[in-house]
Amino acid sequence: MITTRHFSIDQLEDAAELLREGQLVAFPTETVFGLGANALDAAAVDRIFLAKGRPSDNPLIVHLASRDDLSKIVSHVPEVAQALMDRFWPGPLTLVFAKSAIVPRSVTAGLDTVAVRVPAHPVAAELIRLSGVPIAAPSANRSGRPSATTWQAVSEDLEGRIAGIIEGAPTQFGLESTVVDVSTSQVTLLRPGGVSFESLQQVVPGIQVYAKQSNATLSNQQLGPMERANETVNSPGLKHRHYQPKARIVLVKDLVSELRTGSEPAAFIGVSEPNDAPKYTRILVCHSVEEYASSLFDFFRQADQVGAKSIYCESVLEVGIGAALMDRLRRASES
């Protein structure tokens, strides 16, 4: 077991030193907490997969302190990528480029593309700057579990498995970044997230949605399982089971007609008060879809802690952050 050191935001140089030494450090971003390693150190990257129990065919996102560092890890930056970066970087947008030879293949799951973003969170930006290296960082949680939006959630999953945790404030968005593929002539939304599809369309009117999720993410159809063993994907969050608490997830479209059944402990989260509120062990009624999204993963963990066997989650309209929220809820409900 590794001794996990905890750092305040005033101790970022100490955390950056661990990263330079090839160790793993969890840190806050505006989306979720990331589990960072030197992206150019293959041995350090391998430690990410070991600590998380993450499948090796699931690519990682490389985080940079500035877009000025992009030329080191990608081989080509198309004009459309420049336009997206001008609008959304720094921020919760990940772009998939053709990679340079310097990026280890373990970072990209053996692919010739690499996913990159520049986080807007001041702690993340300063940590990457101080480390002096690009940081590969998936969400800081055990693979398949709800992403960590607090440092306490990171500790719950990874204490004793990583070298450091930065004790920053809870994250802003609570859902992972939007991922857009700009490595080919057809710009494609791979994963919805903190930057909405509608906002992307304003910059790239011809953007398309990854075929595997288009019917589900941007409509009310049910998303099917995506675990084909031979499927190749160039974004995290598309292939394996994700975001799942121990409790069963139940999506609720109509709070009037779809009341919970059974007597086992259950929790509820949504933007409306459920009619059968007394039947729930824990309830969180959010004031907005944005609050719903930012609270979701932490609520999953709270429900598990109180022994809920089911978590009833209210469906929302799939516009803005609602599309990303429904994407995570569907994936969390997959068996």
Structure description:
The chain is of the alpha/beta class and 335 residues long. The protein folds into two domains: 5-217, Alpha-Beta Complex (DHBP synthase); 248-333, 3-Layer(aba) Sandwich (Rossmann fold). 27% of the residues lie in helices and 18% in strands. The chain has nine helices and 15 strands. The chain has helices spanning 12-20, 42-52, 79-88, 122-131, 151-158, 197-203, 211-217, 289-305, 321-333; strands at 5-7, 25-27, 34-38, 61-63, 93-98, 113-117, 135-136, 164-166, 178-181, 188-191, 208-209, 248-252, 266-270, 282-285, 310-314. Strands 1-8-2-3-7-4-6-5-9-10-11 form an eleven-stranded mixed sheet, with helices on both faces. A four-stranded parallel sheet has the order 12-15-13-14, with helices on one face. A hairpin with a 6-residue loop joins strand 2 (25-27) and strand 3. The radius of gyration is 19 Å and the shape is globular. The chain starts with a strand and ends with a helix.
State which percent range the strand residues make up. 15-25%
CATH-scheme architecture of the largest domain: Alpha-Beta Complex
- Rounded mean pLDDT is 91
Topology-level CATH name of the largest domain: DHBP synthase
Rg for CA atoms: 19 Å
What oligomerization state is this entry in? single chain
Question: How many discrete domains?
Answer: 2
DSSP summary: helix tally: 9
Task: Give the low-confidence spans.
Answer: 214-230
The strand order across the widest sheet is 1-8-2-3-7-4-6-5-9-10-11
Going by helix content, strand content and strand pairing, the class is alpha/beta
